Amino acid sequence: METSALIKSLVQEGQLLALAAEEAGPDAAVPTCPAWQVRHLLRHTGMVHRWATVFVAEGCTEYRPEAGEPDLDGDELLEWFREGHGLLVGALSEAPPDVSCWSFLPAPTPLHFWARRQAHETAVHRADAQSAAGGDPGEVAPEFAVDGVDELLSAFHARGKSRVRTETPRVLRVRATDTGDVWTVRLSPEPPRTGRTEEGPADCEVSGTAERLYLTLWNRLPLDAVSITGDTGLARLWREQSGITWS
């Protein structure tokens, strides 16, 4: 996706997150994040937005730790979240295309990285907020969902931090039935290697619409939201080991 399209998605996702959080209320449990209430969701996502803004707005080329979550609640917390979301959108929209700043996943430019990462960060937590408000995780546009699946498989889980590993080589295929996109994920004792082609046989295939794949692979829908053929143990391995943690 183009950087401008990702920023547009970030705008929409942040607004929807705030609306769902307001509807649910700060005390509401977040079913997709069992340890959280809505207040924790807002504090976390708002903190991440401000953390990302520093790199883009200040052209910071070295890692900086986040400033911590605020001791805010209720309407004050919601306003703080909305303000931080607006600051992030402004920083991304106003930054020059060639801005130099720190990033941590492969991308065409640092600006594209931050627009992509924050759009998907916000979209996943928007799904959390909507689940807390008593609804389904909500719609995800196919193109955006494909981009998010690709970021997850080809970037996040290409890192040494990935715990999705097998003792012997195995192949997991991921297929978006509505867009035709296919990923082949090669598992081993090393970090997964993912290609965007259908290469050889697979031990397990996970298929569904791009939206369903996006929400399932980010662990916001159960595995039965998609179709699984072959060795279901590989799908369960993903469920158990693929979680992305802040630290």
UniProtKB/TrEMBL annotation:
SUPFAM superfamilies linked to this entry = DinB/YfiT-like putative metalloenzymes
Task: Please provide, alphabetically and separated by semicolons, the GO molecular function terms listed in this UniProt record.
Answer: metal ion binding
Listed GO cellular component terms? plasma membrane
Q: Which domain of life is it from?
A: Bacteria
Q: Which NCBIfam families does this UniProt record tie to the protein?
A: maleylpyruvate isomerase family mycothiol-dependent enzyme (TIGR03083)
Task: Tell me what this protein is called.
Answer: TIGR03083 family protein
Which species is listed as the source?
Answer: Streptomyces pristinaespiralis
